[in-house]
Amino acid sequence: MATNVPPDSPVRSGQSVSLISQVKHGERQNYNPEFWHVKFRGFSPSEGSNWIQDLRSISELCYQWLRPDLNSKEEILDQLVLEQFLICMPPEQQALVKESGVKSCKDLEKLLRDRKRHNWSIIYSQGQAHLLRHPSVGKAEA
């Protein structure tokens, strides 16, 4: 599943991120980090592939996922920490984080604090975990 690294890629050309950071507003809106995250995590070299090309491909996929030209260091660190949090947490927390759409550790902390006040259940549908908030709990607290 190795992908070709574009010739003008910052990874291939060795350009510094600061030189590449002049990005149009529309590019940020069309940016889909989840697509590139899945491609990055799913990368596997083909048998007999060129290791140097594989390294470049993985680097390019990581670059496309984390986009240092679009995201600050703090945003990139938050993406990595949130991913690790999802990996090591039980399904209930995973579903809570995924469905909430939080993008920062600060937002996740707030979500987890608020979560303690609610009663949640996990519903599995077509192999995916979904979080269900019990309506009676929310009404009683309101």
Q: How would you sum up this structure in a few lines?
A:
The protein has 142 residues and is mainly alpha-helical.
Percent of residues in helices: 55-70%
Radius of gyration: 19 Å
Number of strands: 2
* Strand neighbour order, sheet with most strands: 1-2
Unreliable sequence segments: 1-8, 10-25, 137-142
Span of the ends, CA to CA: 51 Å
Oligomeric category: single chain
User: What is the succession of H and E elements?
Assistant: HHHHHHHHEEH
How does the helix and strand content classify structurally? mainly alpha
Average per-residue pLDDT, rounded, comes to 77
Query: In the residues, how many domains can be counted?
Result: 2
Percentage of β-strand residues: 5-15%
Biggest sheet: strands, sense, closure? 2 strands, antiparallel
Query: What is the overall shape?
Result: globular
Walkthrough of the structure:
It is a single chain. Strands 1-2 form a two-stranded antiparallel sheet. The N and C termini lie far apart (51 Å). 59% of the residues lie in helices and 8% in strands. It is mainly alpha-helical. Helix 4 runs antiparallel to helix 5 (51-66). The chain has helices at residues 10-13, 17-20, 25-30, 33-42, 51-66, 73-88, 91-100, 105-115, 135-141, and strands at 120-125, 128-133. It has nine helices and two strands.
